[in-house]
Design goal:
Elements (H helix, E strand, L loop, with lengths): L3 E12 L5 E8 L7 H12 L3 H20 L4 E3 L3 E9 L13 E10 L1 H10 E5 L16
Parallel strand pairs: 1-6
Antiparallel strand pairs: 1-2, 3-4, 4-5
Helix pairs in contact: 1-2
Length: 144
């Protein structure tokens, strides 16, 4: 299998108690964000399926993900991974008295399938973006 290049940028990050010192860290460089319409085009190109059918299936998939997760289901797509809702919770001395106010930070978690993790680990090599590369923008910390 031919390895694919994945680029990174090195930049400053405040670390330590109270962010008192600066350290340098590597962060992924994302070439772009693919929106839903670009995804439609990519699926059409790779599958030969007409746009109206691709749009219908992708939109239905998104709707199903939303409904299933909000109804307490974990969605597992073999060879890709699992999606589920999670949250943080206050801690108490006894199991009594929990309310919705004790639940914080609801979020969707994606857990990649072991096959996908293995494929990425085996198929990527990393190179640093240098000055003069296509973009010198440091990726946002929350994207990495």
């Amino acid at each position: 299998m031919k390895k694919k290049e994945f680029r990174f940028k090195v930049g400053p990050k405040k670390v330590g108690f109270g962010n008192q010192r600066t350290a340098y860290v590597a962060r992924p460089y994302y070439a772009s964000k693919i929106d839903k319409h670009s995804l439609y085009e990519s699926i059409m190109d790779s599958s030969g399926i007409k746009k109206d059918k691709v749009v219908g299936v992708v939109d239905a998939l998104i709707t199903q993900f939303e409904q299933l997760m909000m109804n307490g289901h974990t969605i597992h797509l073999e060879d890709f991974g699992s999606f589920k809702i999670s949250f943080d919770s206050a801690s108490k001395e006894t199991p009594d008295g929990f309310t919705d106010k004790d639940i914080k930070n609801p979020r969707i978690i994606f857990i990649p399938d072991i096959r996908l993790r293995k494929k990425i680990k085996e198929s990527l090599f990393f190179t640093e973006m240098k000055d003069g590369d296509a973009s010198n923008d440091m990726p946002d910390e929350d994207e990495g």
